[in-house]
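quick one, 420 residues, struct below
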Amino acid sequence: MSTPTNIHERVSNLFGDLLAVRYGGPCVLSLPGFKGVLTADTKRKFVGPLPTPDDPSRHVRKLVGPALLIPDGAVTLTFPALLQGGNYNLRVNHGEHIVGVFEKGFNEAWDHLVFRFGQYSRLQTLNRNPDELPVFMLSVKVIEHPKYKSPHPSSKSTPEQKKALKDHWMPITDRTLTEREPKIPDEMLTGEVKIGDYTFCGELEAYIVIIGFFNQHRAALVEGYLKQWPVEKWVEEGYGIKVRRKYKGDEAQKLKDFTNIWKSVFTKYRIRIWEKGGEAWRAYVKAQLVKGVDVYSREGIRDAWKEYLMSAPFNKSESEADELPMSDLIDAIAAGAITTAMEHFETFKRQVCGSSPDPPALEIAQGVSVADELQDDVSSVKRKFQEWMEEALQEADVQEPDVDEEPDVKRPRQVDEESL
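---
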């Protein structure tokens, strides 16, 4: 398995935040003494079915033995109070739910991601209840052009060649890093990133594919797996979109259609989280009553439960999850291109020059107490606060409008004569 690059990790962290905090967080049950927790778990392992001899996946032919499937991310809704104790029904039926799966690919070939698609098209749900499929399978594929190749010499290089390479690269630092413009701006999100005039990260393009586990989507997932659709086919069928900075003409309509699918999927996602919270709480209340405990006798519980009921997603007209996070994703990929190039460069420098480009850590100051060090930090930040506040107030004074200026009066809208 290849080591994740910084691009991979930035995309992973972005969607972890979007799915678990910004999209789903407001729908998670939180009552006094009983709270749900929504997390984006990376590398959640589960053993999938053995590939059949007629499995159409090109990736599966490379596997040896049983396939251990590891989704890059599983969005998990957990109720810690129900996972503890000896109540089997509460633990198994209400304690934990996989509500979504997300995959990212950078070094991995598209065939690898499609192989994972196939696992979610089968009966495997990741949940104990066979009727409880995850709400969605989301995949982001970032493609590098050309794919990075280290300038490190081959094992057949002579000692003289290795010395010449070391002498050349020893004085070069990441201060020489430059970002080039994409050769085809409408197609690529970033240009090449060079250090010492060598490309340490190629140009990047990206695609998003999302499958909501509606019946229609599941049918497309099965067909796409059987026919091993390339990423362009997923886009053509409406389940994917190429990430662009601007959408024009036909591409703008594709974006609109894909946004409608996105909104449907994440409407269902928010409803599922809210619904599972309500079911978990009601099951817990009944279990406590069997023990002779009325949880509603505790102060504030009934009001908090009513407030949760009123927070139902269908009572809200808008949500951040209704819009595609294109700008956030592009920012993550663009930043990842820089840091990935630096990672490649630092690895290469260690291999060729035998030294780390990282500066050494500060020496340990003996005899400084934790309290004194913390006080110094607080004092330093307070000084910055004062400086920043003074700057902000000065800028506000400069931008204060002239009171003698004529007010900006909006003109009455002209009537379109043709409409009369």
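The mean pLDDT is 84.
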